[in-house]
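re: ur question from yesterday

yeah so i grabbed the chain u mentioned. its 221 aa long if i counted rite. heres the sequnce exactly as i have it in my notes:
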Amino acid sequence: MLTVAAAIRKIDKAASCHHFCTEATADIRSRYIKSLLPHLAQHPEDRLTASCVVFSRLRREIWLIGDCQALIAPDAGKTKNYKLLENPKPYEQTLAEQRAAIINSSLKPWDHFLTDDTAREAIIPTMLESMKQQNNGYSVIDGFPVDEAHVRIVTLDLQPWEIVLATDGYPFLCPTLAESEERLVWQRDNDPLNIGAFKATKAFTPGNNSFDDRAYIRFNA
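ran it thru and got these structure tokens back, copy pasting raw so excuse formatting
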């Protein structure tokens, strides 16, 4: 994450998404011990991996590289006509459904899975197998060429827009941070296993206020 953040800070303001992907990939690759590259080429699950969402003000483009999300609304949000942008991993929802089915069919109490998520353990082998599609079916930044066919680029016109960029740690992305946090708290309190209307491949760990990393920024452009 820190390496990708540094790549964003140093990139030229006129850079294209392709240029950014190339530079960020090189920066991650420089972190690897060269003797490990053949192994990493065959084992994507062992790579340093990050997703990111970037707004190019000069190009008026939003770049979704990996499983991140955004909200956009014309007229700087005054219309309240928000559109959700996503770029999920292709296997994530299927595995989340499988995990939920295991829990719902189990004779064990749900509380068991909060401290010993054997349903997640059951899907991990499939998850690792699915990761072989990394940058060969879905995009991430991992030190190997980004699968740019699966980078989502959204171009905005010149009218004022309100933009929210966030990680997928917010199951319900809202126009304000407060609303997004409130929905996250509701999810934790009502469905901490994430097996209901919102399904995920993991649950809230007891004592944690989130089930995944989260970042949120809102601005007008």
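noticed a couple things. The first strand starts at residue 52 and ends at 56. also The longest helix spans residues 92-105.
anyway ttyl
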